[in-house]
């Protein structure tokens, strides 16, 4: 798993210690973008949909495309603009306006949308993201975990071994799902908490050392168990 550490990280003297890490830079706060571009192993350029959603702000599609153009070269990649809480058609409309190649891009499958839509994405993109939304908003909750199981079951049944990035998902390091990468602002937000001050690089190093499973084995979900119980009656 590649661990993308969210920015901004202050003060700058502490950010410098993180040179060589992988970073997630959001369009919602771009202050560390140029430093990360020069000093990171790779950067995930996030479109800032989470901030737009939680702060009820309008997303600037043209602004994001213009901003990311300076930085969007391999091994860096960007999250295609998406709408949290939107329909499949909302996502399709935004994806159609995205000018960059699939190799540099990753759409988001929102977990409240259909598994058919997930499979369509998997058929067309080598890398894509899982986004927690709707009743699956809380990452790691029971209902979220069951939905994640359903998604990995469907992908595995069809022979996919995709690069799946988990948005807001570094807390899942070491868990059962075979995510190729995940991001979190944990280090930037918590390394200097009063009473537990640590070097951000040391904190990130501990997180980076924990890996996820590489292979998914199809398992029963709550929904499949419901169907089995109905058939037995």
Please tell me about this protein's structure:
With 233 residues, the protein is of the alpha/beta class. It has a single domain (2-232), classed as TIM Barrel. It is 36% helix and 15% strand. The chain has a 9-stranded parallel β-sheet with strand order 5-4-3-2-1-9-8-7-6. Helix 6 (115-124) crosses helix 7. The longest helix has 16 residues, at 142-157. It is globular. Mean pLDDT is 92; it is low at 225-233.
Order of helices and strands: EHEHEHHEHEEHEHEEHHH
Count the helices. How many? Answer: 10
Q: Given the helix and strand composition, which structural class is it?
A: alpha/beta
Q: Measure the end-to-end span.
A: 43 Å
**Largest sheet composition:** 9 strands, parallel
Number of strands: 9
Proportion of beta-strand residues: 15-25%
Widest beta sheet: strand line-up: 5-4-3-2-1-9-8-7-6
How many domains, in number, for the residues?
1
Stretches where pLDDT is under 50 for at least 5 consecutive residues are 225-233
Topology-level CATH name: TIM Barrel
Mean of all residue-level pLDDT scores = 92
Instruction: Indicate the overall shape.
Output: globular
Q: What's the helical proportion of residues?
A: 25-40%
Corresponding CATH architecture: Alpha-Beta Barrel
